[in-house]
Amino acid sequence: MDTFDVVVVGAGSAGAAVAGRLAGDGMRVLLLEAGGPDTDPDIRDPGGVFRLWGGPDDYNYFTAPQRHLGGRRLHWPRGKVLGGSSSLNGMIFVRGAAADFDGWGPGWSYAEVLPYFKRLEDFDRGADDYRGAGGPVRVISDYTPHPVNAAIVAAAVEQGIPFNPDCNGERADGAGFCQLTIKDGHRHSTATAYLGERPTLEIRTGARARRLLLRGRRCVGVEYTKDGTPHRVGAEHQVVVSAGTLESPRLLMLSGLGDPAALRQHDIPVVEKLPEVGRNLHDHALVPVIVAARRPVPPALPGLQAMHSQLFWRSRPGLPAPDVQPLFFHIPLYDGEMTGPADAFTLMAGIVRPESRGHLALTSADPDAPLHIDPAYLSAAADRACMRAAVELCRELVRADALKEWAGGELHPGDRDVSDHIARTLVTYHHQAGTCAMGSVVDHRLRVHGIEGLRVADVSIMPTVTSGNTNAPAIMIGERCADLVREDL
C-alpha cells in the first residue's frame, strides 16, 4: 500500500489549496479527485460556464421535491473535475461580510481569517489593509463591463443604493461590479492556481473515495476505486476530506461516522456517533426578474461571463450584514415554463442569509448511489419574506431612468403573483454549506470529533454560510487548514 504524509480527498476550491500549500512545504501529499483532468475548453472560457452544467465534469445532483416550491426538484451542478466547482462556477469572488465569521468560534473571527484572504489572492489593484497581492489566485476588478450590466448598477445608485468599488473591502453593502477569478481572459480555478509542478505532490484523477481506513479511533488512509479497481493508500500523518458539502458527509457516513440509526439502516457499522453529519444543510437561492430589451442587446464581451454586476442590500433594519445579493445578467434566463425574446436581460433576486435548514442522507451503502438531498428551501417564513423583498427590489430597479435605454416590459413575473412566481422559478445560488459544521461535527481546528488524524476542510464546515458567493471562503478554509496541519507537525 502506498503511503504519504497527507492524503487529501477532493481537488476542489479548498482541497487544491490544502494540497498545494502542504506539498509546497515538501510534504509528500496525495490528492485524490473523483473527476477527470480540467481539459474541457469551456472550463478555460469564462463564457462557457452554462455549457459545463450537466456535462461530464458535473456531479449533476438533484434535490428531493421541495414542499415550498410546488414539489419541484432543483438541479445542483457541482464540479467533478480538477478544481472542483471552481472549474464550473461563475468565477465571482466574494469573501462575505465581516459579521459572517463572528459566530464561527475561536480562530475564525474576521480579524483572524483576513490574513488568509489576503494571502490567497493576487488582486489587480494591489495590496492594502484589506486586500492582498502576489498570492496564487488572480482576482480582477478593473475591466470594462457590458453596457447592460453597467446600466443596472447605475439604476441601483439612482435608487439610493451607494456604489461600492470593493465589496471585499471595509464594507460589503452597495452596488458594483463583480470581482472575478479570471486571469488573462481565462478562468483561474484553484487547480490552475495551486496545482502546478510540485515534486512531492501526486494527483490521481478518476479516483472515487469509497471509505476512510480507520484503525481504532485513528484514520490511517483512504480506500478508493479507479477504473473499477479498488485501491488503498495510507496517510502517515492525516487525511483531509475536502470533497464538498455533499460528498464530504457521504464519505464520513460510509466510514461509520454519523447518526447511528441512519447508518444501521444501511448495515454500516457505527464507529463514532456523530448525529449532525449531513444536517444543517442550507443554500442561497435566486429568483429571476426578466425584462424585454428595447433594442438589441450587444453580445457577451470576450473574457467575461454574462453575470458581472451585483449589489448587497439589507431587507430590514437591525441585520449584522446584507441578506440580499441580486446578481445581474445581460441575457435572459428562461427556465421551465418561461418564454420570451432573445433580446432581454435578467435581474436575479438573491437571498444570502437563509434561516431554512435541511439535511442530506444516504440512500444506500453504495458510494455511487444517489443522495437524498433536502435543503428545505423557504421553509422559514423569514426566507419567504426576504425573497419577496429581493424580487420587489429588482422590479424597482427596472423602473429607474438609468435603465430607460434598455428596459422594455417586464416579462417575468409580469402579471403573475409574486409568491407563485417565486415557487415556480427559484433556483440554487450554488452555495450549499453546513453539513459537517464546526462545533457539531468538527472542532475549531477542523478535526473530526472522536477520530484522530482526520480533518474536513471545505464549505461543509461552515456553521452558517457566508453572505455571498462561497468560492473565496472555501479557498480561505483550505489555506487555514494547511496551517493547522503544519502546526500539528
UniProtKB/TrEMBL annotation:
One of its GO terms (molecular function) is oxidoreductase activity, acting on CH-OH group of donors. Keywords: FAD, Flavoprotein. Its cofactor is FAD. It holds the Pfam family GMC_oxred_C. Signal peptide: none annotated. PANTHER family: CHOLINE DEHYDROGENASE, MITOCHONDRIAL, GLUCOSE-METHANOL-CHOLINE GMC OXIDOREDUCTASE. This is Glucose-methanol-choline oxidoreductase N-terminal domain-containing protein.
